[in-house]
Amino acid sequence: MDSSIEDAGAVPGGAEQTEEAGAPQPTPRAALPGPDSSIAADASGAAGAAPGPEAAAPDTAGERAAIAPTSLSPSRAGDFMQCPLLYRFRVIDRLPEKPSAAATRGTLVHAVLERLFDAPASERTAPRAKALIPGQWDRLRESRPEITELFADDPDGQRLAGWLQEAERLVERWFTLEDPTRLEPAERELFVEAELESGLRLRGIIDRVDVAPTGEVRIVDYKTGKAPRPEYSEGALFQMKFYALVVWRLKGVVPRRLQLVYLGSGDVLTYDPVLADLERVERKLHALWDAIRQATETGEWRPRPTKLCGWCDHQAHCPEFGGTPPPYPLPVRAAESGSAAQGRMGPD
Predict the structure, then answer these.
(1) What digits encode the pLDDT tens for the residues 327-347?
(2) Please, what is the average pLDDT of the chain?
(3) Which among 282, 285, 255, 284 has a CA at the least distance from the CA of 270?
(4) Closest of 195, 230, 239, 188 to residue 70, by C-alpha
(5) Which residues in the chain belong to E strands, given as ranges?
(6) How does DSSP assign 187-255, residue by residue?
(7) Which one of 36, 62, 100, 302 has the fewest beta carbons within 10 angstroms of its own beta carbon?
(8) Distances 199 to 70, 195, 262, 289, 341 between C-alpha atoms, Å
(9) 100-140 pLDDT per residue, tens
């Protein structure tokens, strides 16, 4: 890795002292290189605003009315590629899902790594990061009360203690992979959104953006699981190429490096994209969106059974498990002859 990227965003120490560990902190905003003053803005023009659901729906008499999907994120694109019916359950039907201990721990670790950069560079240590965990856990429970059910059957708190210890181990491992004292991210937990010429809106949240003194951009994503085997690395990079495409369309800058930091296994996966990569991803996303739109219009959402079905919360509604999907909440039209929605996606 060349030094300009390795030290992207590096600054000398001497920043102001932050507030008490665990206290709410505003995330600093910084402009990335490019013709615009900020990397992203939502529909109201506010950079860094939190994203809403891709099929945002108003509350009506205590229930949420379904509307057609209006944008695409890496997660929802992945859902459709994994199983079109899963995409429908999550985006259109918006069926509830049980909180996951692994996913919740990932959210907690992400919050800790984000907040650590509020401290001066010299104070970004593993003990300080671990000290942030209790406060961030309290904040997470306040914002998402449903996660308390994860430990409802844990009266003595042993499972919770073990779960928090694993979060500490993941945070500690990060310090063996990156040196936060040498980094000053341009952005953290950055919401980005771009509308392509076709009208397709892409949106998502980037964990960290580093900018080298030379202006080169590195996009970093933390993963609390283990790195995939080499034959599956392309799938893991899809999310990062998605973000790189959004940055390119917003700023006219192709990120110099994409970096996946796997805290579960202690691996770092990097990829240096070129313009052809982003153009290829854009074509794939257009084909994917065409398939989603046709499935939305026809109501034909086909299940795609895989070994991942064992972790799905929606087996009771899935025909592959003898279930019945809820009534389709959107108007439908007759399917076009010979054009199955799920068969339109081209290769990456």
Answers:
(1) 999 999 865 544 444 444 444
(2) 83
(3) 255
(4) 195
(5) 59-60, 63-64, 187-195, 201-211, 217-223, 257-262, 267-271
(6) EEEEEEEEE-TTS-EEEEEEEEEEE-TT--EEEEEEESSPPPPGGGHHHHHHHHHHHHHHHHHHHS---
(7) 62
(8) 10, 6, 34, 11, 19
(9) 999 999 999 999 999 999 999 999 999 999 999 999 999 99
Q: Tokens 């953290």 label which residue?
A: 188
What is the chain's Cα-based Rg?
21
Tell whether the torsion through CA atoms of 335, 336, 338 and 341 is positive or negative.
negative
Distance (Å, rounded) from C-alpha 282 to C-alpha 246?
9
List of domains in the chain: 76-181 (no CATH), 185-293 (3.90.320.10)
| Residue 95, Cβ density class (10 Å: 0-12 exposed, 13-18 middle, ≥19 buried) | middle
Residue whose token pair is 């369309």: 249
